[in-house]
Amino acid sequence: FMFDPFELLGLKKTYALDLHVLEQRYFALQKESHPDRIKVTLSSRPESAIQKSALINQAYTYLKDPLKRARLLLELGGVELLSHDASFLEM
Questions:
Q1: What is the pTM of this model?
Q2: pLDDT mean across residues, the chain
Q3: 58 Cβ partners below 8 Å, 6+ apart?
């Protein structure tokens, strides 16, 4: 995984997330980093604000989904998943 959504959103790495807290962190970070709210200076470019906003969206999407969150925790813990094919669940 390229980044750690837990770290990005400032949350403890645990499966049992409080979804209300997750949502609060998401909206607070989006409010801070939204490209429309950032004053463009020589040291800050709008592209970096857009990238940060996109990463925050991706982190939120991963952590709010229980299956993605479980898989992420396994990967962050160094567990290699054997199958990426979920078709066995349709049996």
A1: 0.72
A2: 82
A3: 5
